[in-house]
């Protein structure tokens, strides 16, 4: 029983280390591969521990609780906070995507766009900061001129603004999105060449603003 308890202690620490290595994105909106990773990680850890009876199970539960409280206490220490909890990471600053941070966190542009749209900001240029918090959630702060008044406050009915449509993501053309806005591949290539871009693979993200069909481009850094 002592050996199994020691196994549990070691596995708790090991799983914690692996979870920290996997990064904050694992704690946010789970994708299929995130869920599979969690399931197999849990299965591997549980399979290595042989709980021998009710008394041993109680000891294991108490031990897990002790580890949890110990980590919670240690996370309050300034020197250990960034190791145990992590630190916020800026993904968008003044309407510009911080590509190096996305790459370091293994966070795709598709996930980022989906998240900021859920906050009601379809255009990244409207965002002052988008920050990935240590708990895996994203905080979005819009530019000052976009809030806090609403059309309802002023008793006005604004014109409908077309949704920005992604046409290039991580060097790949979005053909379906082009057809949605009645644009062709030839039109996109012509627009890129007009702006000085000859190779699609040099572009990290590009979208079309629906109000005037202007193409906004973010090249790879």
From TrEMBL:
Taxonomically, the superkingdom here is Bacteria
> Which is one Gene Ontology cellular component term of this protein?
plasma membrane
| Membrane topology, record value | Multi-pass membrane protein
Domain (YetF C-terminal): residue spans on this chain: 80-208
* Keyword list, A-Z: Cell membrane, Membrane, Transmembrane, Transmembrane helix
Q: Spell out the InterPro entries in the cross-references.
A: DUF421, UPF0702_alpha/beta_dom_sf
Subcellular location(s) per record: Cell membrane
- Transmembrane regions listed in the UniProt entry: 6-23, 30-48, 54-71
> Pfam families, alphabetically?
DUF421
PANTHER family (alphabetical): UPF0702 TRANSMEMBRANE PROTEIN YCAP (PTHR34582), UPF0702 TRANSMEMBRANE PROTEIN YETF (PTHR34582:SF5)
Tell me which family the UniProt entry assigns to this protein.
Belongs to the UPF0702 family.
Question: What is the protein name given in its UniProt record?
Answer: YetF C-terminal domain-containing protein
Q: Give the organism, scientific name.
A: Salipaludibacillus neizhouensis
